[in-house]
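HOLO CASE FILE
Compound: zinc ion
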Amino acid sequence: SSPGTDNRWRHVRRLLERAGPLGGPEFEPDPELFSAIRSDLVQILVVGAGGLGCEMLKDLALSGFVNLHLIDMDTIDLSNLNRQFLFRPKDIGRPKAVVAAEFVERRVSGCRVTPHFGKLEDKPLEFYKQFMCIVCGLDSVQARRRLNQIVCSLVQFDESDQPIPTSVIPLIDGGTQGFQGHCRVVRAHATPCLECTADLYSSTQQGFPLCTLAHTPRLPEHCIEFARIMQWPQEWPFGEEVMKTE
Ligand SMILES: [Zn+2]
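Model generated. Tokens follow.
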């Protein structure tokens, strides 16, 4: 390849071809890893094309992956545009998956993104088998649980009841709430799955997105939260301590 191409992927190669503190005990640095990423055979599914999904799709494309799939059931709304940066005003009303795929294909040469406009359950189990990894940026706990169930049910076992490694699809689950975020990796039957740790997620979603409170409060609860989170600290900077001592 030309020197220009080498330079483009310099940073990714550095991660893949050297050992490092973030690599983990099973990671073996290898120059071949980069050509694996650039191969059509490494097919990755991104679930969700919202705030997190847009970022992840961009990151994967810029990391050199060339065969991405994207699934999302939503269409673009005006209120998405401040953070879902792959969308423009002219895209309002169109499916997020389709528009995001078009944008990334246009911007990152050599990267192919196949969009799927619809729900997770619209796809047969067979559909999910083709991916080497599933990366998820969803805001719904229910949809996460469904995805978790999908990857767990795809696992096959050998005669001694050990999971067959090639049937285990790693699920990388990301989520945000306000300024907080989390990311975890689930490898079915090797690490706890989402159901094992369901207590970590609140069953009823508590709190509201800060952008909703600031820009489009539309419920009495939003106004109360706005007063509690933003106005109270301004009016009563030491309010809680005063209340305790009184
Ligand atoms: Zn589990």
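CASE NOTES: The mean pLDDT is 88. Residues 207-246 form a domain with the Arc Repressor Mutant, subunit A fold (CATH 1.10.10.520).
CLOSED: yes
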